[in-house]
Amino acid sequence: MCRQLGLLLLLSLSLVEAVSLCQRRKVVRTFNVRRNASSTSTPLQIGNGNFAFGADITGLQTFQPYGTLSTWGWHNFSLPTTPGQTSVEDYTGMQWWTHDRLVTYAQPNPAEDDISTWLIKNPQRINLGNIGFTFGAGTSVAESDLGQKTQVLDMWTGKLLSSFTYNSSSVEVETWADPDSDTIAIEVKSDLLRSGLGLFFDFPYPDNNKFNAPFVGVWNQTVAHTTSLEQTSRNSATIKHSLDHTTYFVTVTWEGEGAISGPVKGTHRYFFTTPAKNLRLTATFTPAPSAKNPNLGSVVTASRDWWRSYWTSGAFIDLSSVKSSNATELQRRIITSQYLLAVNLASSNPPQESGLVNNGWYGKFHLEMNLWNTLPFARWGHFPLLWRSLPSTYQRFLPSSLDRARQQGYSGARWGKMTDPTGRSAPGEINSLLIWQQPHPMYFAETEYRAFPNSTTLTRWDTVLSATADFMASFAFFNVSTGVYDLGPPMYPVSENTPPNGTLNPAFELAYWRFGLDVASRWKTRQSLPVPQAWTTVRDKLAPLPLHVNATDAKDVTYAVYEGIPGMWTDAATTNDHPAMAGIYGLLPPPSPTGGGASPLSMAALRNTAAKIKARWALEDSYGWDFSMLAMNALRLGDAAQAVEYLLHPIFQFDDAGYPVGGSRVPTPYFPNAASLLLATAMMAGGWDGEEGKHFPAGWEGVEVDGFVPSM
Ligand SMILES: *[C@@H]1O[C@H](CO)[C@@H](O)[C@H](O)[C@H]1NC(C)=O
Ligand SMILES: *[C@@H]1O[C@H](CO)[C@@H](O)[C@H](O)[C@H]1NC(C)=O
Ligand SMILES: *[C@@H]1O[C@H](CO)[C@@H](O)[C@H](O)[C@H]1NC(C)=O
Ligand SMILES: *[C@@H]1O[C@H](CO)[C@@H](O)[C@H](O)[C@H]1NC(C)=O
Ligand SMILES: *[C@@H]1O[C@H](CO)[C@@H](O)[C@H](O)[C@H]1NC(C)=O
Ligand SMILES: *[C@@H]1O[C@H](CO)[C@@H](O)[C@H](O)[C@H]1NC(C)=O
Ligand SMILES: *[C@@H]1O[C@H](CO)[C@@H](O)[C@H](O)[C@H]1NC(C)=O
Ligand SMILES: *[C@@H]1O[C@H](CO)[C@@H](O)[C@H](O)[C@H]1NC(C)=O
Ligand SMILES: *[C@@H]1O[C@H](CO)[C@@H](O)[C@H](O)[C@H]1NC(C)=O
After folding, report:
1. Model-level pTM?
2. Which of 449, 456, 458, 709 to mutate to test the pocket of ligand 6 (most atoms within 8 A of CB)?
3. Fewest beta carbons less than 10 Å away: which of 80, 117, 301, 650?
């Protein structure tokens, strides 16, 4: 059977794969997630990147009200009524001295506390609703009342299969998501359907906490919102949910006999029951009334096709011939991360760190995380998923980013940070002073150009790159006493724990500025267009990367977090948060020689820095993507075993379903960990310029890889 399928594909697509369809399917299914109880921290999800449904052990949201989240479902609480703070326009921000002039930053203003807070907390992403089992009117059933609970998430097809017994009868549940609409398809087989087993639909109200995990919304503020039911045919009904200015619709369609009723007084609960032994139903969530919604059969077919195409069209790493538990665990993380990225991050807006599982930071997305979260689609051969949001979101946010720069007295476009779908960046000291998100468009564009080096790519990104480079060049400050261009102060570097008014020339940002301006300049040259002089002048005269020289050992030279940082390596504050110096050679390629002169990177300093981070950094407080960045740095420094050690570091945890554990500082899941693991492993599989090909630890024989373009 397997061979036939492979042959068919081979013949029909003339596809010659190093890792055959059969082998890919075997590897993927080896890591299918199996549970026999609900997790209290993560669901099992099905979804399409713009919409996802988080299920408990019943395959629905019966006992654990996990989220049904989308790219489009957002809500605002009402504006403050405080005099002078009743509209968004009343907010003015804060002025800080910036190189002898006052610049306005979007920071909370104590004199405008209510509107500042409103702008931080609004809009927030909403849980569109829950669907679960009901066991008959007046029957209260707990998960412990169910027997023989089993569940398997088949990542090869997108099927969630769950079964359990109740009252000695079996219940078998299949749950699917449609790749092409925001639809959940449910099939239930059970005799109990005739004696009271049915479905409920319930609708929570948003809450305004920064982190909504593991669940999103509150179920006890029923008077604050309304729902209504309209039966549209014998087999379909629409529930309309209105929360202040947000309204959306759930269209429920079923096959055969069935009835929907509700809401139960004082709640937003609706019930569906059928007298048949087989329930087949779909629920489509839409911001406007939906004209059509797909039936169960078409969702099942579309899901199977989409996932098979996802697993067979992209790049692949097969570690199954390596007899090591470390390789098996790395393979598990690779497979589950690929599944979870497609479900949670392949969206038409930049994804949030917790994807579509729950809300971190009110459900908003951080543009500095966009590189980690979205780049894997490019590196793993899934450009169509990258193109869902790129470069369109940068184009959409361009007018407000041009405004932001202009109001601050800079040229070009200054991208925001903690962002909602309108492109507004939430007030915050760090939000307004972080700068490492600025060159991301160059990284995306250059990666795309390496895969598709043609005029379509050049044209798509040109406007965004030009506006980005204009800002970067004008943000750099020419220091007449040193004769170089400085970055900051004020600013926050990647490690968000330095004093902003004293932070000058951080290592990673200087390297990234040089990279970004270099890409922007090459972009113009490739189009035979003139390169703005300011870009190359700033690129070539940026301050040198800051070094730290050990006072008692002149040969002990390392990179420093920023120029003049006190107590580098000895003060605990200097070895905490993100070790961004590992990014200048891990995430970034070495500088191209176009900038004139010798490479400004010192290999000795890079090696010493890597060794000192390993020995002294407070990695126990790190966010997980640090480990992937350290792994990429180790790879370029020639130590693949060290890279794997970082990717399996005890603080870098992935749960039984592959969700990256947030750790001490952020909620679970924290997807930049999974996404960055895919960037690091893509580099292991495909190598990088000058070192193309596989880079796995000694002794890992027989690794098969397929479809990788070397990294920059
Ligand atoms: C249920 O899962 C737990 C944890 O994975 C495992 O130890 C146990 O054997 C499982 N039980 C059954 C009946 O599969
Ligand atoms: C929330 O309010 C802001 C400011 O008025 C507006 O730009 C945005 O579109 C609103 N979002 C929602 C989901 O209502
Ligand atoms: C930075 O300087 C500004 C004045 O330009 C001041 O208002 C602000 O409080 C300072 N920030 C910190 C964190 O010291
Ligand atoms: C389960 O059994 C109880 C007790 O016999 C009965 O009241 C209830 O209706 C049954 N529920 C279902 C869904 O069959
Ligand atoms: C409503 O539910 C939330 C948890 O979902 C709880 O924190 C809160 O206290 C409840 N409020 C009331 C009024 O019961
Ligand atoms: C550039 O490459 C992409 C991807 O192969 C293709 O869709 C596009 O048509 C190409 N553009 C040109 C001008 O060849
Ligand atoms: C110029 O650079 C030196 C050394 O980095 C720094 O101490 C000084 O503050 C800078 N001057 C200005 C005006 O920023
Ligand atoms: C400086 O070098 C000495 C001697 O090798 C060493 O003991 C010390 O830890 C080093 N200091 C730093 C900050 O690395
Ligand atoms: C697995 O990795 C750990 C470090 O992450 C290492 O100590 C151990 O030796 C490795 N085991 C094998 C079998 O390679």
Report:
1. 0.96
2. 456
3. 650
